Please model this.
Amino acid sequence: MPKFFAVLAGAALALTLASCASNSDSKMAVPEKPPVDVIHADPTLYANTYGSYTFRIGGGTVWCTINPQPSYAVCEQNGPDVQYKLPTTPAGCDYAYGYQARLWAVQPSQGKIAEFMCSSGLYADPTGASDLPNNNEITVGTITCYAAEKVARCDNATGQYIALGSIVYGFGNN
Model:
């Protein structure tokens, strides 16, 4: 009988620890949409020589690029700084996966509006990119990106989003 109680106590402890671990799941920390008092940053401050707009989030290891034509945003995470559990690399992707997220303004011909990209390298070079401070957002066309601490969240006009930071990622494909 004492062995039964020991096993029961061990199972209860395991369930308790598992529930604590699930509370730290990266998808639970995705920032909500920006607050009403968000500061609207001037997009021209983030323009690059390629006709797109690149910015870093809070001086951290995440940076995003908004492309007006075709209209999409790509947010990237510096690989060594990733603390979230990387997703399983899909079949057919022979490169890095789980470090770059893309959000389209409209449904692309293939894939989802918001998802990770199979990547063979950096999409944009963050060297020299200006910081988008916390509680600031930038809008280019129908894509708006928001800085929440060290996490980037980009939304399109129809409510889909990507969020990326060193400990969090999330996608909204409604």
About this structure: The chain has a mean pLDDT of 84. The helical segments are 2-23. Residues 1-26 form one domain. The chain has one helix and twelve strands.
